[in-house]
Fold this protein.
Amino acid sequence: MKYRVAHTTAYHYDEDVLSSYGQVHLLPRDLPGQRCERSSVVIDPLPHDYRERSDFFGNRVAYFEIRSSHRSLMVSTTSWIEVVAGARAALVAAMAARAMTWEEARPASGDPEGRDYLLDSPLVETSPELAAYGRLSFIEGRSIHDSLVDLAIRVHDDFEYKPGATEVTTTADEVLVQREGVCQDFAHLVIGCMRSLGLPARYVSGYLETDPPPGRPRLQGADVSHAWASVLVAGVGWIDIDPTNRQLVNDRYVVTAWGRDYSDVPPLKGVIFTEGTKHDLEVLVDVVREA
């Protein structure tokens, strides 16, 4: 399957901005089951400096500098991605076929692939409270497959999806108390539960192809960026879990970046120099399956 993903972020400032320095995590990764055929980045005003690199986690990162006065900033990325049908389902099937318990699924101590994702991070710290919530799904001797599915369902059912209820700095423990948030928060919650039980887990950002309401045409710009969690299962690999949609990740997802938590891979962050104090923000995302 092939997808075209367009993501536009526009800022409108109340005063002149003398200069802007930004970093973008919006370019899809190449990984087993997913290949980014090409990407384009359009920035207005035209940047004085633009470069791309790979970060510590292997993500594609774009950096730009605008050193002239402006009242608005637009960053638009368009990518064409091929997703291998059934690749993620095959990984889940392999995990289920092994019939290992979740205790057996924990990688060996010191496993280099999962080492960084067992440690506490700025927005996800292990805690007895997160471990206790996770153990309601990770019952002694239960299979890792059934435990992950149950956790996804429980988070979806126990927490209210409520945009605006949290900030980008809200921690996993705070989400556990508030019982509301958005996809970023639910991903952090799952990650916190997994790490508190000794399972390496990372934060994944990307996109999900969505369906329009029944009988309604698909609207341009109606999609949003998405986030979920990924857990390292010994002998199998990384299994992605989407608690916002109470399911394991399938072929309708596109991965852009991953890290320890949101703070490692925000879609767009930067610094501006201005006397202004206010701005308007508009984000448009479109995920289209192409023939």
